[in-house]
């Protein structure tokens, strides 16, 4: 089956959409020549690495940033280079598919039935990931995109991993 996974979204999770609580720092990033202003917390890396180590899990990006997260996000939050779910650009709402459904399809395929925790802010992602064929045991930790990732989210994931017996 393979080790469990901790999957990370960037925007709305590690980069809240409003000025966040204490501990975040402002950064400018320019993937593909487009400049973004981000709020990132350098303490998130340690929290996530500790979670993964305790659970015997691998951490991976599950974000439209894909591999760009390794250059622009990882060093600013204290994470090493990570594997990533290859999520192609969203082609728009087609045939009733929403943004969460689009990401969920790619996440489910990439995880290959492994158990995972996914830190995500898309409101429909929970329902969408559960509907994907072959998806393994999982917990989608819904993060408020205005607040971003908190210790409360990490604790919820740790409790879930502990319940899996890992």
Automatic annotation (TrEMBL):
A Pfam family assignment: HAD_SAK_2
Domain of life: Bacteria
Protein name: Secreted protein
Protein source organism: Actinomadura macrotermitis
Biological classification of the source: Bacteria, Bacillati, Actinomycetota, Actinomycetes, Streptosporangiales
């Amino acid at each position: 089956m393979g080790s469990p996974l901790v999957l990370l979204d960037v925007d709305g999770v590690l980069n809240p959409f409003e000025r966040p609580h204490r501990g975040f720092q402002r950064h400018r990033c320019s993937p593909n020549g487009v400049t973004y202003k981000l709020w990132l917390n350098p303490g998130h890396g340690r929290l996530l690495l500790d979670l993964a180590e305790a659970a015997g899990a691998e951490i991976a990006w599950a974000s439209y940033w894909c591999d760009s997260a390794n250059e622009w996000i990882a060093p600013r939050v204290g994470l090493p280079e990570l594997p990533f779910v290859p999520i192609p650009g969203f082609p728009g709402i087609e045939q009733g598919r929403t943004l969460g459904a689009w990401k969920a399809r790619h996440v489910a395929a990439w995880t290959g039935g492994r158990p995972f925790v996914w830190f995500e802010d898309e409101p429909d992602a929970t329902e969408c990931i559960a509907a994907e064929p072959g998806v393994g045991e999982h917990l989608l930790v819904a993060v408020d995109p205005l607040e971003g990732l908190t210790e409360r989210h990490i604790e919820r994931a740790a409790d879930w991993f502990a319940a899996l017996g890992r």
